[in-house]
Each structure stands twice: as C-alpha cells, then as structure tokens.
Amino acid sequence: MAYIGNFPISVGTRAINFKQNTATKKTETASGRIIRATNSTTIWSATLSFPTMTLAEFKPIQAFIARCQGSLNEFDIVFPTISTSTSPNVASQNCYVTSDASAGATTLSVNSNVISGELFKAGDVIRFGNHTKVYMVSTDINTDAGGDATLNITPALVNDVVSQESAGGEQVIFSSVPFRMILTGDLQEFGYRNDGLVDYEIDIQETI
Fold first, then answer.
1. Residue 197 backbone phi and psi in degrees, to 5
2. Cα(122)–Cα(82) distance, rounded to whole angstroms?
3. What angle do CA 26, 29, 34 make, to 5 degrees?
4. What is the 3-state secondary structure (H, E, C) of the chain?
5. How many CA atoms, within 13 angstroms, populate the side-chain half-sphere of residue 134?
6. What is the pairing mode between strands 74-78 and 3-6?
7. Distance (Å, rounded) from C-alpha 131 to C-alpha 11?
8. How far is C-alpha 208 from the chain's CA centre?
9. Number of C-beta neighbours around residue 13 at 10 A
10. Digits of tens for pLDDT over the chain (208 positions)?
11. Cα angle vertex 95, ends 91, 101, to 5°?
12. Beta partners for 54?
C-alpha cells in the first residue's frame, strides 16, 4: 500500500453523508444486564455524492480512483465545511500542545495566541502533526489570559503527542483538516450517461 496524495475535489460535492463508526461489544447477562465495552477507536467514513459532471471534470477523478487500486492505496481529502473550525478566530489563531500526552488520553494541555477567547467549538475536527488520525473536539474550548486551555477530544489518542517544549513538539491542525482515507470497496461504478455527462458517488473510510 502507498499514500498517493490529495483527492481531486475541485468540482465540489452535492452532498456528504458523514459517518462516525465505533465498534462496541455488548454482552447481555441472564439477568438482562447489558455490559458494554470497546477496545477500538472511532473511524470516520463518508459517502460523497458529486454533482453531475462533464467528461473533462470527471476524468481526473476516475484516474485518481484507478490509482487507488480499490482499497489498497490511501489518500488525504479535505471535506467542505467538516474540515474547517467554526471558531471566529480560526483565520489568525495557532495552537500547540504544551504537555506530553500518551495514547489513550482524551484531554491535552494546549497554548494559543488567542487570549481569553474562543479557541474551538464542540464538533470541530483536528489532527496532530505526528500522525494522521482525525479527532473531534468534544466541548467548547476557551483560553485563559495566558492563551492556555485544556483540549477535550474524542476518540482517545491513538499515538503519543509531545509538547511544544520537547523535540518535535506538535502543532494542532484545525484548518482544512485532511482526513487520511481509503476506498471502502474494491468495486467502483461510474455512471456514464448518453448525454455525455457522468454521475458518481463514492464511499470512503478513514485508515490509521
């Protein structure tokens, strides 16, 4: 398998069905009690419906799909709306991890140039510089007078993240967040119409 670059999404999408997948194991006892547990992370997936395209618009997409070789090769995709923070300060802010966090953590200490203001809104997605997993901010995050804040995320970290003060300290990516994805299925269908236009829909899922 290989990383083959950014998915060509310049034509835009007509609709995105965005999905959150968390595998939960449920065991029901004889008394009726249901025990629930999970040992896996949340995986994001999506169905992208494209507007009807001309051949010139569609050919680059079909070529990229061919390079994917089914679900073998992975790519990054920046989703309209979903990949961008809704914070009003997003255009000018930055954000760094300030204390080492281990895999399994759901809170991180961060610092930003936003002072006593809104850093993230619940539902924003973020990514860290040292790995490709995408996380969702689970609560509204506001900084104090020094720009410090506690960042709450879901799911739990799948990799350790080191602080800004440590060698290779990590920046929080919150604008145009790329999702590392693969095609969900190995069979792809292309809707070539008799009027020379093309209809296409794609199912993709996160890979980590």
1. -100, 170
2. 12
3. 40
4. CCEEEECCCCCCCCEEEEEEECCCEEEECCCCCEEEECCCCCEEEEEEECCCEEHHHHHHHHHHHHHHCCCCCEEEEECCCCCCCCCCCCCCCCEEECCCECCCCCEEEEEECCCCCEEECCCCEEEECCCCCEEEECCCEECCCCCEEEEEEECCCCCCECCCCCCCCCEEECCCCEEEEEECCCCCCCEECCCCEEECEEEEEECC
5. 27
6. parallel
7. 28
8. 11
9. 17
10. 899 999 998 788 889 999 999 877 777 777 777 776 666 789 999 999 999 999 999 999 999 999 999 999 999 999 988 998 888 777 678 899 999 999 999 999 999 888 998 999 999 999 998 899 999 999 999 999 999 999 999 999 999 998 876 655 688 999 899 999 999 989 999 999 999 999 999 999 999 8
11. 150
12. 197
Instruction: Provide the token pair at 115.
Output: 């002072």
What type of residue sits at position 44?
W
Write the burial class of residue 161 (CB in 10 Å: 0-12 exposed, 13-18 middle, 19+ buried). buried
Is-contact 7 77, C-beta < 8 A? yes
Amino acid at 190: F
